[in-house]
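Would you mind writing out the residues of a protein together with its fold in token form for me to study?
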Amino acid sequence: MQAVNYYIVVDKIKAEPTKVGGLELTDEDTQNRYDKGKVISRGNLAVGVEPDDIIYFDKHAGNSMEFNNKSYQIITIKDVVIIEWPTSRTTSSIEYKQ
């Protein structure tokens, strides 16, 4: 599966519940407006993200799509607010277009 233009295919990452005293507590923060996900594919115009990057994006952005019995979120580059880069990647390796 390959995204085109400004689109990004994202696999959402769900927060793991924590156990305290045998009780399972979920991290349901209704004030948080962003979701976390792993980039699966990016279009040729989606500059700044690469496959396998972990990103945070607006939770109300894009649409869901099912592919090979797995659900993905399809968003645009403008919906990305944070990119968690691996230590091997730096901002100097990114080409910005204006």
